[in-house]
Design brief:
Blueprint: H1 8-32, H2 38-42, E1 48-51, E2 61-63, H3 64-69, E3 77-78, E4 83-88, E5 100-102, E6 105-110, E7 115-123, E8 130-137, H4 143-151, H5 153-163, E9 167-174, H6 187-191, E10 203-210, H7 213-221, H8 235-244, H9 246-249, E11 256-263, H10 307-316, E12 319-325, H11 330-336, E13 344-347, H12 355-367, E14 369-370, E15 372-375, E16 381-386, E17 391-392, E18 398-399, E19 405-414, E20 417-418, E21 421-422, E22 432-439, E23 445-451, E24 473-476, E25 479-482, E26 486-487, E27 493-494, E28 517-520, E29 523-526, E30 532-533, E31 539-540, E32 546-547, E33 550-551, E34 556-559, E35 562-565, E36 569-570, E37 576-577, E38 595-598, E39 601-604, H13 619-638, E40 655-659, E41 670-676, E42 681-687, E43 698-702, H14 715-736, H15 739-746, H16 748-751, E44 754-758, E45 762-766, E46 774-783, E47 789-796, H17 804-811, E48 816-828, H18 839-856, E49 865-871, E50 882-892, H19 896-908, E51 911-912, E52 915-925, E53 929-936, E54 942-948, E55 958-970, E56 974-975, E57 979-985, E58 991-995, E59 999-1003, E60 1008-1016, E61 1023-1031, ...
Parallel strand pairs: 6-23, 8-9, 8-11, 11-12, 12-13, 40-43, 44-56, 45-57, 58-65, 59-66, 82-104
Antiparallel strand pairs: 1-2, 1-3, 4-6, 5-7, 7-19, 9-10, 14-18, 15-22, 16-19, 17-18, 20-21, 22-23, 24-25, 26-27, 28-29, 30-31, 32-33, 34-35, 36-37, 38-39, 41-42, 42-43, 44-46, 46-54, 47-53, 47-55, 48-50, 48-52, 49-50, 51-52, 52-53, 55-57, 58-60, 60-63, 61-62, 61-64, 64-66, 67-68, 68-71, 69-70, ...
Length: 1734
């Protein structure tokens, strides 16, 4: 039966919306792409085109349709057309008994991002020729199997004849490689390894495929068993040879190839042949190596093949494997056979007696499976095959019906980017190739596929220095490409020339180009890349009218200050559609005939709250409130009663009409009935029309009321006589007989107008819109409101499943479940009680829990209360200001009746032990139902029943709850509306998508991890989910290639496969195999098209190395059982969800047993578990707080009880949300000229997420630093590029610069600087500074102290260079301070930048120069404050300086030919107890003879020495170190002249250790390198030609309490004594003034911290104070020196760099030269560019 057809109007509206949205989307992508050429344009999107028309003035890169609409000629449009051509197509002949496919060949060319769909026909006949080859293990353990096979040769032939009339059969045998250790190589064993056996061999083809069954049986009778040593066999060699030796084996081209592999042992695979005993073997070359006797000959020289190799080769040769194995080896092959798309696995009897039955079963199973795969596909293509006829299996094969032509849908897609690189930038072999789309049983389809990456033809025909471009540029593709220094459409304007600005001035304005552009050659060149337009840039294209915040309603573009609307839209802001399609009602009319359509909206003639947007009566809005709205007016007009009787009745805006009969409810808008309080009669009325009461509306009222029968008159005297006696009797009944209350309520006099019931009978809720887990359901009391009524109620969950609650309760009566309990306390609620951290709340919580625990402990199995909190409840009558306590107690399922009875009893007694409670209120919530009580106090008409909604992940998509008012245990009211139905609708989930398992284990040798994704609850539609990988201990781009994208399930598809490429191990990682488990995670998210995420929607991929896989297979994956923990199990289903940037909510299901509480362990992912934080919880959930933003945490939980702790749950990881970043690091300016500067900045100290962009703003300021005019904004969307060249600044004008960063949470605060480039001095002082640079392996991701590398190279700028040797944007300088951003160690940079900013808030600002400056200097006092060793006393330095004492001096000159210190020392962790020490060869005039490496514990102990006689060896592996202990290493070199100076480094390997043995690391635990840090980077400030100030920060990890520092100063090239100073004290930053230095001489400084544990490693730096032009150093304190270089708006240096209270006598300006690790040279004596930083 056909469904309802959409109206023509609906189809028209849908088509219009689709066309508008699609065109807008494509145009936006082509328009917005920042392209500079035709080729770049056509590569943006498959629909992008380029206009080469010389006269075209619009955007040249756009869609072809929009270019034509904008006026571009069709012949001038360049578009790359794709092509699809079938080159070979032979129709399928179903009469032939062979596999066929159509088409057989095609040629396709696609643009990047384009895809093609075509159909493929595949035919598999009902009966086809079969080639059966039996490959059997001939080791000694298979002797009985061989005997049975000899006996069953005839039976085997009979089974084959039943399956097909055309068959061949063959036989081969294998053992293993004839080499050690696989085979016993003793001569006697090589001759006969077992009695009555053949010599050992690898593989031999015994019987090629033959139709002669007798020949097969006879040859088989003569075979004997052989033997080998180890248990695994060499079957993989035999399988490969069987596949590739097609001529020797005899495979026929059009038959079904079956390979039976029979064994009872495991298998060797790739790399097993490359072991130490067997010798290094080359990889298998995948070729046939059988001699004339059919024996495999290359077993000695080639390794075993890998599993992926076998999968590929068997598929290539149409061979389907059947693994017939015994129970002993079944587990090995159970996993192996899943890698083959079509295969079978069967269990052999120990003697192979069932091999015939096994083959018959396997053959029938294989015949119904068909796999189609794309072989030899280039990296730029993706191929996917689906079918509407056949179901796709989890392995990727289709369940087919033989004898039918199957139709398959093929999707061939050219992807745009491969691993982040555009496909057109890849090698040619990745862009084109021959794809072989191959089914299981035939040759398949050959596709010649290529991606169109051609260059536009017009770019190959450019006119160089064209006259059309005034010989200042090249004419190409319709426009001029100007040479450097020229601009304009015809390159007629020199960017460096000045021109008259008069033509650029708008009338009435004094700024050229309205201040929004620059005047070039008499024309305005507007800023903002298209934002400003017009002759004078007077139009702002961001200031057109907006609708709902969207410019031009996102239905047009802003041009010349007005909206230019897209077709179909009009209005000032393009908000009015020309079509009236949005006004069409459900009947096809316009506005239901109740209004007119204007601007796409219905304007109704009569507005009402009951009409919707198309003037249609909204009946759903009428029913809930209309009856109540009409009630009082109907009463007063019809009967003269009610609250509006009298004059107020005239206020009613409608009339009533009394009728004899009312229409039925379905014929009118609403039918209402109410009880009249004055006479206790029920009246009824209806409403017709549109349901909106008005002056012309009429309400029809039934003339006759429904009244109860009247009393007889003669009863009145009798009642008057009996009244006193009756009153006494009732009083006694009320006091002593609860059952009489119900009888009393039946009396008319007591029940008059007195009824309670729910206000509504049905609620419909959507789970995704719910803000809480409960619903306040109003209950009304009508009639006489005197007296007190108590109503008992209950709610039942999942009533749509009959017997669900009863069944759940009967599953396990002793299982602990949480019971929610709510009570109203006999005390008022205060604000402090609502705050959990207040003292008042804590005291009341303790009181409540103590008293309730005392009461409930009489019930067996009840645990103590937890999660106690307080609240108020509105709509609770006169007691709504009282405190309500909510708490949770754990109790067995079977305890529910006892809990309910005890709770009601205590509430009735108004006390729980000593805790006073208000009567008439409680709620007890179990896991599937709840019961409670509410109270109506006197005069109260309405109270709320707080109904729990039992929200569960496993709920049905639409579940029903039933709320029922049970009875009135106290009071005289009768129950009215007793039932309320609550319907909760989840998001419309038609399909459930999830992973098949929560964890997968893959081998790194497979090169690709294949992860299945399944779909359940199919409804035939399509579904889509997003996926992305997330790092664990495995790291992206190191262990695997990160992927993310969308999975689209077509109708009928139930299975998809995610593929993640695995990477080969690095050199260091190769030593870690078996020591650290590498794992990463894959997450599903963002379900679409009605899909819903099931469990598990996150899976963990464990990467195992091949030797690990071998060990796991050999041990049959038998894992040790955890130790017994009594009755406690591990908590189930742990789940973590970020609740903000610094919070994570972690919950789980209680385990089996009786836990007393839970212990949660959480730590930062990547850290050692020994650094975990512990939390104790009494309930199965906890909130982790005070976390770092955008940080990955790992957590797990265990339960504990009287027996101790139970096992921990599985590990769960969660990442906190992002926060906005902090301000960027200090700004640095490289002054290129007075109008050009290069601005750079550091990454924010706290990124709090992934930085995605920076915004740089700059503008003029006045003398008061206030902005003049607008600020110019530049968006830097590449976060790695933290450098910007700013040109065309105004000379001699100060500018204000700001930089701010953005991450996923938004923009952070800005960093500000104000500078005038013209005020920089002409003779700067040069201080090349090279501190000790920690280097981090960018691949390692460890903290920068994990690897220490020292350097003492002196940096010079090239001679005559006009630009200082400025490093890249990772180095930042400020007034003599250098902060290094180390590659791969952003956290270190953050901390250093923050410390530096706090300690040195220097500010470079313009000001009026001081004319009178003090000539006194604190520098002189600093020099005399230093005490050398020849003095007998020490002097205390002024404030801000530590005590400085000279300790020792020695001669640092080296003997000629003695090696220098090794220049670098690098540590690499190989395991928890081993590391590699590497260094660089030192300088030496004589040949080196070797090295010495000494190491010992930092706190003392045995000294170990390693002598290395080979001078070429610059690394050594050190084993047997103690975990978590610091070691000091010394490395030195030796020559003929003796030993050189040593290089020192301190390192610690941190790892988890066994709790009972702190020196034994846990197997498989993570390990990291750390070091007791060296002091912070050395900072040098030149004070004079012979003195400087040295400062440093305290070490981040001092490995003890710091008591002082040791500073050593010596000439870098030798030649003078070394002086050592001691600086006492421990402060965040230490400073030292060093006098007595020489100009133009490099000095080496070393600083090391002295702690209570000893000395830490050194921080080293080399500096040179150079004079300019060889002249004298400028004199401080000299007026001549001051006025020799006059400064406009001079620069001052913050005095906090020097002694407090001191002052400098001139403006000292310093130039700082930084370097990267790879630059070198000599520093120019005259440098015109200075590097300043604020």
């Amino acid at each position: 039966m056909a469904g309802p057809r959409p109206s023509p109007w609906a189809r028209l509206l849908l088509a219009a919306l689709i066309s508008v949205s699609l065109s807008g989307t494509l145009a936006n992508r082509c328009k917005k792409a920042p392209v500079k050429s035709c080729t770049e344009c056509v590569r943006v999107d498959k629909d992008c085109a380029y206009c080469t028309d010389e006269m075209f003035r619009d955007r040249r890169c756009n869609t072809q349709a929009e270019l034509l609409a904008a006026g571009c000629q069709r012949e001038s449009i360049v578009v790359m057309e794709s092509s699809f051509q079938i080159t070979e197509e032979t129709q399928i002949d179903t009469t032939l008994r062979r596999s066929q496919m159509s088409p057989q060949g095609l040629r396709v060319r696609l643009r990047p991002g384009e895809e093609r769909h075509f159909e493929l026909e595949v035919f598999e006949p009902r009966e086809s020729p079969v080639d059966l080859y039996i490959l059997m293990d001939f080791s000694n353990s298979m002797s009985d199997d061989l005997d049975n096979l000899k006996k069953m040769g005839q039976n085997l032939a009979q089974v084959l004849s039943q399956l097909t009339s055309d068959y061949t059969i063959g036989f081969g045998k294998f053992v293993d490689k004839v080499s050690v250790p696989q085979t016993d190589m003793r001569p006697e064993k090589l001759k006969e390894p077992w009695p009555n056996s053949d010599p050992p061999f690898s593989f031999k083809n015994v019987i090629s495929l033959t139709e002669d069954v007798d020949e097969f049986r006879n040859k088989l009778q003569g075979e004997r068993i052989s033997g080998n040593l180890d248990a695994p066999e060499g079957g993989f060699d035999a399988i490969l040879q069987t596949a590739v030796c097609t001529r020797d084996i005899g495979w026929r081209p059009d038959s079904t190839h079956l390979l039976v592999f029979s064994t009872e042992s495991a298998f060797h695979y790739e790399a097993d042949g490359a072991n130490v005993l067997a010798g290094i073997m080359s990889r298998n070359d995948e070729r046939c190596h059988l001699d004339a006797t059919g024996t495999y000959t290359q077993y000695r020289t080639q390794d075993y093949p890998s599993v992926p190799t076998l999968v590929r080769l068997l598929a290539k040769h149409n061979i389907i494997p059947i693994f017939a194995v015994t129970n002993y080896s079944y587990s090995y092959y159970e996993k192996l056979h899943t890698y083959f798309p079509v295969s079978s696995l069967g269990v052999l009897q120990e003697d192979s007696s069932n091999i015939v039955e096994l083959l018959e079963e396997a053959f029938n199973r294989i015949r119904s499976n068909l796999d189609i795969r794309a072989l030899d596909s280039p990296r730029g293509f993706r191929t996917e095959v689906t079918s509407k006829m056949f179901q796709k299996m989890k392995t990727g094969s289709f369940q087919i019906q033989r004898g039918e032509v199957g139709i398959y849908q093929v999707q061939l897609r050219a992807i745009e980017h491969v691993d982040g690189t555009h496909v057109c930038q890849l090698p040619k072999e990745d862009q084109k190739g021959n794809i072989h789309l191959k089914p299981s049983f035939s040759d398949g389809l050959k596709m010649d596929a290529g991606i169109i990456c051609d260059v536009c033809p017009c770019e190959l025909q450019k006119e160089v220095r064209s006259a059309r471009c005034n010989f200042n540029g090249d004419f190409m593709c319709g426009q001029c490409v100007c040479s450097e220094g020229w601009s304009g459409q015809t390159c007629n304007c020199s960017t460096g020339s000045l021109s008259d600005i008069q033509p650029c001035l708008r009338e009435g304005e004094d700024k050229p180009c309205s201040g929004r552009g620059e005047c070039q050659c008499g024309h305005c060149v507007c800023y903002g890349e298209g934002r400003y337009e017009g002759q004078f840039c007077e139009y702002d294209n961001f200031q057109c009218p907006r609708t709902s915040g969207f410019l031009c309603n996102d239905r047009g573009r802003c041009s010349m200050g007005q909206c230019v609307c897209e077709p179909g839209w009009t209005g000032p802001s393009c908000d009015c559609p020309l079509s009236n399609a949005t006004c069409i009602d459900s009947n096809g009319g316009i506005c239901n005939g109740r209004g007119h359509c204007e601007c796409g909206r219905c304007h109704c003639h009569q507005q009402s709250v009951y009409t919707d947007t198309i003037c249609e009566i909204n009946y759903s809005a009428i029913h809930p409130g209309l009856c109540e709205d009409l009630r009082s007016c109907v009463q007063c007009q019809a009967w003269g009663t009610g609250e509006k009787k009298g004059r107020t009745c005239e206020e009613c805006n409608f009339k009533v009409k009394m009728v004899d009969e009312l229409k039925r409810a379905e014929e009118v808008v609403v039918r209402c009935s109410f009880r009249d309080e004055d006479d206790d009669c029920t009246y009824s009325y209806t409403m017709e029309g549109d349901g909106a009461p008005g002056p012309n509306s009429t309400v029809l009222v039934h003339k006759k009321k429904d009244c109860p029968p009247s009393s007889f008159w003669w009863l009145i005297p009798l009642l008057l006589l009996l009244l006193p006696l009756l009153a006494l009797l009732l009083l006694l009944c009320w006091k002593y007989c609860a059952c009489c209350k119900a009888c009393l309520a039946l009396l008319p006099c007591c029940n008059r107008g007195h009824m309670v019931g729910f206000k509504e009978d049905h609620y419909m809720l959507r789970e995704n819109l719910m803000a809480s887990d409960h619903l306040d359901t109003p209950m009304l009391r009508s009639g006489n409101l005197k007296g007190r009524d108590v109503v008992r109620w209950k709610v039942t969950n999942n009533v749509q499943r009959p017997g669900f609650a009863t069944h759940a309760a009967s599953i396990n009566p002793t299982e602990l479940v949480p019971y929610g309990l709510s009570l109203r306390l006999a005390r008022l609620c205060t604000e402090n009680l609502l705050k959990p951290d207040t003292r008042e709340c804590a005291q009341l919580r303790q009181e409540v829990e103590e008293n309730l625990n005392e009461v409930y402990r009489q019930i067996s199995g009840v645990h103590k209360l937890q999660q106690t909190k307080f609240r108020q409840q509105p709509n609770a009558g006169k007691k709504q200001d009282h405190t309500i306590v909510d708490t949770v107690l754990m109790a067995p399922r079977s305890a529910k009746p006892a809990l309910l009875k005890l709770t009601e009893k205590q509430v009735e007694q108004r006390a729980f032990h000593d805790l006073k409670v208000a009567p008439g209120y409680y709620t007890l919530t179990a896991d599937q139902d709840a019961r409670g009580m509410v109270e109506f106090q006197e005069g109260v008409e309405l109270v709320d029943v707080r109904v729990p909604l039992f929200i569960r992940p496993e709920d049905d998509e639409e579940k029903q709850l039933l709320v029922e008012a049970i009875d009135v245990p106290a009071g005289t009211a009768t129950l009215g509306r007793r039932l309320v139905n609550i319907t909760i609708i989840k998001e419309q989930a038609r399909d459930v998508v999830s992973f098949e398992q929560p964890e997968y284990s893959v081998s790194r040798g497979d090169q690709v991890a294949r992860i299945p994704v399944i779909r359940r609850v199919l409804d035939g539609g399509k579904s889509q989910v997003s996926y992305r990988t997330q790092d664990g201990t495995a790291q992206g781009n190191r262990d695997y290639i990160p992927v993310e994208g969308e999975l689209l399930f077509q109708p009928g598809e139930a299975w998809k496969e995610l593929q993640v490429k695995l990477l080969e191990l690095e050199e260091v990682d190769s030593l870690l195999r078996g020591r650290q488990i590498r794992r990463f995670h894959v997450q599903l998210s963002n379900p679409k098209f009605g899909a819903h995420l099931g469990q598990p929607h996150s899976t963990t991929i464990i990467i195992r190395d091949p030797d690990e896989l071998d060990r796991s297979l050999t041990s049959q994956m038998v894992s040790s059982q955890p130790p017994s923990h009594g009755d406690l199990g591990a908590p189930q289903n742990p789940n973590a969800k970020a609740a903000g940037s610094r919070k994570i909510h972690f919950n789980w299901l209680p385990p089996s047993g009786k836990p007393m509480g839970y212990r949660v362990k959480y730590w930062i992912q990547g850290d050692s578990e020994s650094e975990a934080h512990l939390l104790d919880s009494k309930v199965p959930s906890v909130e982790l707080t005070n976390l770092y933003p955008y940080c990955d945490y790992e957590m797990k939980v265990c339960a504990y009880g009287a027996q101790g702790e139970g096992p921990y749950s599985s590990l769960v990881s969660c990442r906190t949300h992002q926060e906005v970043p902090s301000e960027p690091g200090r700004l640095a300016f490289n002054v290129v000229s007075s109008t050009v500067t290069q601005l750079s900045w550091a990454e924010p100290a706290e990124t709090n997420g992934e930085i995605t962009a920076y915004e740089v703003c700059y503008g003029l300021v006045n003398d008061d630093n206030r902005p003049i005019g607008p600020m110019k904004k530049v968006l830097v969307d590449n976060p790695k590029n933290r450098m910007l060249l700013i040109e065309n600044l105004r000379e001699s004008q100060p500018y204000r610069y700001t930089v701010k960063a953005r991450n996923g949470a938004g923009w952070g605060p800005e960093r500000e600087a104000i500078i005038n480039l013209a005020t920089q001095p002409k003779r700067p002082m040069s201080i090349p500074i090279i501190p000790d640079i920690p280097i981090v392996d960018a691949q390692s991701g460890e903290d920068y102290d994990s690897f220490l590398m020292y350097s003492d190279d002196v940096l010079r700028s090239p001679s005559g260079s006009q630009r200082p040797s400025v490093s890249d944007d990772t180095e930042h300088l400020v007034n003599g301070r250098m902060d290094f951003a180390f590659p791969g160690s952003a956290n270190s940079l953050h901390r250093m930048t923050t410390t530096g900013a706090a300690a040195y808030g220097t500010h470079l600002s313009p000001h009026v120069p001081h004319r009178g400056l003090s000539t006194s200097s604190t520098l002189t006092r600093d020099y005399h404050s230093l005490t050398r060793s020849e003095h007998s006393h020490s002097t205390t330095l002024p404030r801000d300086y530590s005590t400085l004492t000279s300790v020792s001096s020695h001669d640092s000159r080296l003997t000629a030919g003695v090696p220098d210190t090794p220049t670098r020392l690098v540590f690499s962790a190989l395991g928890p107890t081993s590391l590699r020490v590497s260094w660089q060869e030192p300088r030496c005039e004589r040949p080196l003879q070797g090295y010495s490496v000494e190491y010992q514990l930092l706190n003392g102990g045995e000294l170990h020495r390693l002598n290395i006689p080979n001078p070429a060896q610059t690394s050594v592996v050190v084993e047997d170190l103690l975990p978590n202990h610091s070691y000091v290493f010394h490395v030195r070199a030796q020559s003929q002249e003796g030993w050189g100076r040593e290089r020192e480094g301190v390192i610690t390997i941190e790892s988890q250790v066994h709790p009972q043995s702190p020196l034994c690391p846990l197997p498989g635990s993570a390990f990291t390198l750390s070091t007791p840090s060296a002091p912070g980077p050395l900072v040098f400030t030149a004070l004079s030609p012979d003195s400087l100030q040295l400062s440093w920060e305290r070490p981040r990890r001092p490995n003890g309490d710091i008591v002082g520092y040791l500073v050593t100063c010596e000439m870098a090239q030798g030649g003078g004594p070394a002086t050592t100073f001691r600086v006492d004290g421990d402060s965040p930053e230490s400073r030292l003034t060093v006098p007595g230095l020489s100009e133009n001489v490099p000095y080496k400084f070393k600083v090391q911290a002295r702690t209570t544990e000893g000395f830490g490693p050194e921080r080293e730096g080399i500096i040179t104070i150079e004079s300019q032009d060889g002249g004298p150093f400028p004199q401080l304190g000299s007026h001549a020196g001051l006025f020799q270089h006059p400064l406009q708006n001079g620069l001052t240096l913050g005095a906090q760099h020097l002694e407090a209270g001191g002052s400098l006598t001139r403006h000292v300006t310093q130039e700082f030269v930084s370097r990267t690790l790879t630059t070198s040279g000599t520093l120019s004596t005259q440098v015109d560019q200075q590097f300043f930083q604020t």
